[in-house]
Design goal:
Distance between the termini: 76 Å
CATH topology of the domain at 471-550: Serine Threonine Protein Phosphatase 5, Tetratricopeptide repeat
Number of strands: 0
Oligomer: single chain
Largest sheet: none
Number of helices: 31
């Protein structure tokens, strides 16, 4: 609870029936991710309106707290009736009118036609009250824009800004309008000006962050998101905005720090149970991020904390199982997956994950049973079908395994992934000619399957009977290109793809490039002994090539 909210609540204790104390308290509460805070804001504002039913300001504040929905229109309309001279209410009300109505809710007269080039009745009334009222020009501009009169709309906005150049809200309206005009530069310019004039406005700065991200100006977006959090440290949306900006930079470490900061800042005075209830999703997400950056023990603490209060959360059980599986704690992972299935037997992913654990524990019959259960729940789940085929093969049933994969193709003949899965299996079974055919079919259906490109490139580079240097290099380069487009590439995949590219470069008489590429592969996976062996081979080939050229 910040200082302003504390003061407002103290004032409310002293004057519980004073409407302005209620409105001040309602306005001071920061909602964040706590829905109960939002309900409290509305209830306080409604009490204020009940105590001051003839106050236009009270109705306007209640409308602002509602944020959206029919209640907003109703409260603004009441504010306009109580104080027709309250000009700031009218433009906002105008944006919410049902079709066929004009300002104030007055229906069009029979036979009356809308003239988009002229102000409607209420805007004319605004001009008559105060000809130089900037918001009246804004309302007219929005009406003109609605009917495609962009140049005239821009002229009205320009006039509004001439009258009130430091009105941040007008700059913000013009920014939003310019998006519909596909004028991205104008939008960005006006948002920057709105933020300059009103630096504490949450909506202005958040919109600026989103605009910068849409234009891929990520460093500036990150800077603005950090400023948003600095000014609104307990607001969930501010924190979420910064997390997205950090995600655009693939900075998971900073994302972890931001979530931890936000939860700490917004949970002051809460018990551990209350903190879990208030920040359930944030804590679970934090656990996943910690796992991604290798902080497995800290990740486990987050999952265990949530499960202490929510033992029947199938999703958290499944996520915790994934963490344990990645740590090669297969028996413990299987326990969590089993618990997830107990909580929700219809979740196919848990059945597949449990089957994968059983494979690692050499419990083939149990794995086959779980894979079949996963497929029964989700027949098009290619990963479960490939797992089932591998389990059947390990039991000495390769023909049944291939039949299982082909049944997936029969059900989905144009699904690239089922063809790729069959190709992976055939490659493992050393039937490389058939694997190549399936890889090519998969890539015909989906040219963006990077692992299929990589595996096909490897076969064409290393199999003496199928060697095709040019095609191998083409697929290897495409695999690496597709991987680099991934904002969060797996380091293991990067190493394997670079290793394949190095092999393809070597058979295309490019030993120096092959050596350099294999060095990058080894840097991504320094503990891989095969990469070290191949690096020496590539170094020797590069040296021989250089000596031969001399």
């Amino acid at each position: 609870m910040d200082e302003a909210e504390t003061e407002c609540r103290l004032a409310l204790v002293e004057n519980p029936s004073y409407p302005w104390a209620l409105l001040a308290a309602a306005s001071s509460i920061q909602v964040g991710s706590n829905s109960e805070h939002g309900k409290e804001k509305i209830e306080l504002a409604k009490r204020a309106v009940a105590l001051a039913p003839n106050s236009a300001e009270a109705h306007a504040v209640l409308a602002q707290i509602y944020g959206y929905g029919p209640e907003v229109y109703s409260e603004l309309q009441q504010a306009g009736r109580l104080n027709p001279e309250e000009l700031d209410v009218l433009p906002r009300l105008s944006t919410m009118l049902p079709s066929g109505q004009v300002m104030g809710g007055t229906a069009l007269k029979p036979g009356e036609q809308i003239d988009p080039d002229s102000p409607d009745h209420e805007t004319q009334r605004l001009f008559s009250i105060e000809p130089d009222f900037a918001n009246a020009h804004v309302f007219f501009a929005r009406r003109l824009s609605t009917y495609g009169r962009r140049e005239r709309a821009l002229a009205e906005y320009s006039e509004a800004l001439r009258l009130e150049p430091d009105n941040a809200e007008i700059h913000f309206w013009l920014a939003n309008e310019s998006e519909g005009w596909n004028n991205r530069n104008l939008k960005l310019t006006e948002l920057r000006e709105a933020v300059r004039l009103s630096p504490d406005s949450f909506s202005y700065r958040e919109s600026l962050v989103l605009c910068l991200e849409s234009q891929r100006q990520f460093p500036e977006a990150l800077e603005e998101a950090r400023e948003l959090v600095a000014r609104h440290p307990r607001d969930w949306m501010a924190s979420a905005s910064l997390r997205q900006a950090l995600d655009n930079q693939n900075d998971k470490v900073s994302s972890v720090a931001e979530i931890q900061r936000y939860i700490k800042a917004a949970s002051v005075g809460l018990s551990e149970e209350q903190r879990v209830e208030a920040f359930y999703s944030d804590i679970v997400f934090l656990g996943g991020l910690l796992a991604d950056i290798g902080q497995s023990e800290e990740a486990a603490k987050q999952f265990e904390l949530v499960l202490h209060f929510h033992p029947d959360s199938f999703y958290v059980r499944n996520e915790y199982g994934n963490l344990l599986f990645d740590q090669k704690k297969y028996a413990e992972a299987a326990e969590q997956y089993s618990e997830a299935i107990r909580c929700d037997p219809e979740f196919p992913e848990s059945h597949q994950n449990l089957a994968d654990s059983f494979i690692k524990l050499n419990r083939l019959d149990a794995a086959i049973s779980e894979y079949r259960q996963a497929l029964e729940l989700s027949p098009r789940e290619s990963g479960a079908r490939l797992g089932l085929a591998r389990a059947l093969s390990r039991k000495g049933l390769p023909e049944e395994a291939i039949a299982e994969l082909k049944s997936g193709i029969n059900e989905n003949p144009d699904n690239a992934r089922v063809h790729a899965d069959l190709a992976y299996f055939l490659e493992e079974e050393k039937d490389v000619s058939s694997a190549v055919a399936e890889f090519r079919r998969a890539l015909e259906l989906d040219p963006n399957l990077r692992t299929a490109h990589n595996d096909l490139a490897w076969i064409l580079a290393t199999d003496p009977n199928l060697r095709n240097p040019a095609e191998s290099l083409s697929h290897a380069e495409q695999a690496v290109k597709l991987l680099e487009m991934d904002p969060t590439p797996n380091s293991g995949s990067r190493a394997a793809f670079l290793d394949t590219l190095a092999e393809a470069l070597l058979i295309n008489s490019k030993p120096n490039e092959a050596w350099e590429t294999e060095q990058k592969a080894l840097a991504s996976d320094p503990q891989n002994p095969q990469f070290r062996t191949r690096l020496e081979r590539f170094r020797t080939a590069a040296a021989n090539y250089s000596a031969h050229k001399k």
